[in-house]
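Take a look at this chain, tokens included, and explain the fold to me:
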Amino acid sequence: MINNSLLKTIILTALALIAFAANSVLCRLALGNDAIDASSFTWIRLLSGAVVLFVIIATTGNMTEASTKGSWTASCMLFLYAITFSYAYISLDTGTGALILFGSVQITMILWSLISGTRLHFTEWAGVAIAFVGFVYLILPGVTTPSTVGFLLMTLAGISWGIYTLKGRGSKYPLMDTAYNFLRTMPLVILLAIITVNNAHYSVEGILLAMVSGGITSGIGYTIWFIALGGLSSTQAAVLQLSVPVIAATGGVVLVSEAITFRLVISAALVLGGILVVVLGRTYFVQQGTDMNT
């Protein structure tokens, strides 16, 4: 019998992972069909996220309960993630973009752990090497090679999201922190809108897709994820995020009529498999070391 706490964690985790994948699909639907430009998609997405989150806070009466309200560093990383994510999807397929994004996120967090003084076991180094080979294979010259600019932009988006995740990990007030992080992006949002106004183009479809991406799959999705993290170990969270590129690729096939290439399948197996080796290797050897010392 599943207890209520576990059931809640399962449901919230599933919703968050679907929301992450949906962001890739929504962005490709908007930009791939030229329904809106990348800059407008970005600022509408962030503005919608801020509005929806503060409406939720106002209606639930939580406006003054939190002692922390995000940070400027997290907000800058959120904006950098959002804008590079949008421009990357001008030239990347849904599944490819999601693979690069979440592979970069996990590698960023692994490297951060290494920089912070954590020593990697042999199996973890092997996993990192396998994941790196997967990225190299993905960008090797060929008919199905993704755009270099798109690859670099999505890698930067992944690094930014990884840092944002590290900043938000352990948040006691995820809804409030997420809302204020979105709010703090507004000066950059206004600047972006002004700079790109001459190249902006809209459609009702593009605006609606950006609003859904911002208000639901980003704002609410990120909040749900940080709540779900309270019931997940770091290992579980890392492994579960590996499913996002698969979900996104499936959405790309069904909703955007994209093809799954052999290169993407092999690269995904190497990147996600390598990261899985890192995560499970650390769990196993840390546990083994603990058992030997008891």
